[in-house]
């Protein structure tokens, strides 16, 4: 194993190991308050007075995470890797987010009783491994000295129901991946080789309450619960989100995210709240999706540096609180004092004949599209759980569909750089009371390829947004935040459509419950863009620096 870690250190350009002696004890039984035993591995470095790094995970303690444990331990930390209950040898049933607070606190109590315990620990992990950090962080006290939270957030509810729709692709894919962990390895590889046909059928299936069985062959309890408890006032989520106590966290927190990550908006909200509360933070956002190799490498480098500085007390070089990658031609890395940077809101108005310009149009006939949930507008790229299908892609195939409207600017004379939150205001009239509005910003290059930059969807239903006497409703759409440079000669493009399936569950148009809806109702909708109804995209303009970082 030492040869492997040496090779990994060299290949990944990691800081040099502090010790080559790491003793590993596997399958330690840690008993928690309700009698459940959680299986735990301990990587002990051959160094005195080493602090501890805790990683709790539902994805197993072998494979890449075993290498991670060894790499962190060689840099002078005790590393404790624990399987969440109901996964990989730990007793009980895995119920997402339900037991992580209590199990985390009981594990911390177990750590305090170990002979090597120094009174200080940190936490490290991505995605669900970050959720379990936030579940524990507010009650860990002064012993928690550092956190490394990668593509994750303290509150998962808003990411699950972005725009009050349902993140179908993410949730069902995750349910399938969790179930796949329980089947033999060869069977799993065969399913992957065939392109996961069961998952593809499940994403297209109605009612959604049967989709988990189509994808996995079994009923997945949390999937059923998330379909039932989807309203904003659902009490179900109060004990499953941990953002209400984030301002009590005093440990320094490093956050690593990606512009095309599923949790980015919630993660940036965590960052803003921590900064406002006075916590020490570091934010890095790169050109990554949820599972990008570059993201994993950056999180390892950033994480080791953060743990060295704030847990082990080995200060490194001073760094800016925020480092973001600006996408697009002529972009690059920028170091910033805070996020978002100061910006000037700039409105780009939808116009007739598919135009897009800074000035509104005095008179302009509305555009009409027909949305049919039986043939839903497909999603293409963007923030998805599986990296192979996510990210920036050429959008021309979906833009050629009759149920997608596009509005495109003239070629830019000068570069346009944006950084911060992006939003749209869409004025529409529809014969249906239940509908979705999907808005996407794209960069059209000189060859005519249309690359998605950021997007967002909002679900419209009676009473959510007021209608004027003529039936027009103004829909505010919050898009993913971004940092992007549109080069001279490129064009801005805004897509408007009625959905992005299966990333978001299709809107049946009937108001039927999320899990049981089977009746699909198609209908027309009009997008208005005259001076009285100035539909527009609002971009945060920032001055472009003379040199890229």
TrEMBL record:
Q: Cite the entry's keywords alphabetically.
A: Hydrolase
Q: Which Pfam families match?
A: Peptidase_S15 (PF02129), PepX_C (PF08530)
Q: Which residues form the Xaa-Pro dipeptidyl-peptidase C-terminal domain?
A: 304-538
- Source taxon at top rank: Bacteria
Protein name stated in the entry: Xaa-Pro dipeptidyl-peptidase C-terminal domain-containing protein
Species of origin reads Micromonospora tulbaghiae
């Amino acid at each position: 194993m030492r040869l492997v870690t040496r090779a990994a250190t060299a290949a990944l350009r990691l800081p040099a190991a502090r010790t080559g002696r790491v003793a590993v004890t596997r399958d330690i039984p840690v008993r928690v308050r309700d009698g459940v035993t959680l299986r735990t591995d301990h990587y002990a470095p051959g160094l005195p007075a080493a602090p501890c790094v805790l990683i709790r995970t539902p994805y197993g303690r072998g494979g890449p995470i075993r290498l991670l444990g060894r790499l962190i331990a060689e840099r002078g930390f005790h590393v404790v890797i624990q399987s969440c209950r109901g996964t990989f040898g730990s007793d009980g049933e895995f119920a997402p987010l339900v037991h992580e607070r209590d199990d985390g606190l009981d594990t911390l109590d177990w750590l305090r009783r170990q002979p090597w315990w120094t009174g200080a620990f940190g936490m490290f992990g991505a995605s669900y491994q970050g959720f379990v950090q936030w579940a524990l962080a507010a009650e860990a006290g002064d012993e928690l000295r550092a956190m490394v939270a990668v593509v994750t957030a303290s509150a998962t509810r808003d990411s699950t129901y972005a725009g009050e729709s349902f993140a179908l692709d993410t949730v069902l894919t995750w349910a399938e991946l969790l179930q796949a962990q329980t089947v033999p390895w060869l069977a799993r590889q065969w399913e992957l080789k065939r392109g996961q046909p069961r998952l593809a059928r499940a994403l297209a299936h109605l009612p959604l309450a049967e989709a988990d069985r189509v994808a996995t062959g079994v009923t997945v309890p949390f999937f059923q619960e998330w379909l039932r408890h989807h309203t904003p006032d659902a009490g179900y989520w109060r004990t499953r989100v941990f953002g209400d106590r984030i301002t009590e966290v005093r440990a320094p927190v490093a956050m690593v995210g990606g512009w095309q990550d599923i949790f980015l908006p919630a993660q940036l909200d965590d960052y803003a709240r921590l900064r406002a509360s006075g916590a020490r933070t570091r934010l890095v956002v790169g050109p990554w999706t949820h599972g990008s190799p570059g993201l994993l490498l950056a999180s390892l480098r950033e994480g080791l540096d953060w743990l060295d500085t704030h847990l082990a007390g080995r200060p490194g070089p001073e760094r800016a609180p925020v480092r973001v990658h600006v996408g697009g031609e002529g972009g690059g890395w920028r170091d910033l004092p805070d996020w978002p940077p100061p910006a000037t809101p700039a409105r780009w108005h939808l116009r007739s004949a598919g135009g897009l310009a800074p000035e509104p149009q005095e008179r302009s006939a509305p555009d009409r599209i027909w949305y049919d949930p039986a043939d839903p507008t497909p999603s293409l790229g963007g923030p998805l759980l599986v990296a192979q299908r996510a990210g920036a892609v050429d959008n021309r195939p979906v833009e050629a569909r009759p149920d997608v409207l596009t509005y495109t600017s003239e070629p830019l004379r000068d570069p346009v750089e944006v950084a911060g939150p992006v939003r749209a205001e869409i004025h529409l009239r529809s014969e249906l009371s239940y509908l979705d509005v999907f808005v996407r910003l794209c960069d059209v290059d000189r060859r005519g390829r249309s690359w998605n930059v950021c997007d967002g969807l909002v679900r419209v239903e009676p009473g959510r947004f007021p209608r004027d006497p003529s039936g027009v409703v103004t829909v505010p759409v919050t898009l993913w935040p971004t940092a992007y440079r549109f080069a001279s000669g490129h064009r801005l493009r805004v897509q408007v459509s009625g959905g992005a399936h299966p990333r978001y569950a299709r809107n049946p148009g009937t108001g039927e419950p999320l899990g049981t809806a089977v009746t699909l109702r198609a209908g027309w909708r009009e997008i208005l863009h005259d001076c009285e109804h100035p539909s527009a995209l609002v971009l945060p303009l920032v001055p472009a620096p003379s040199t890229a970082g």
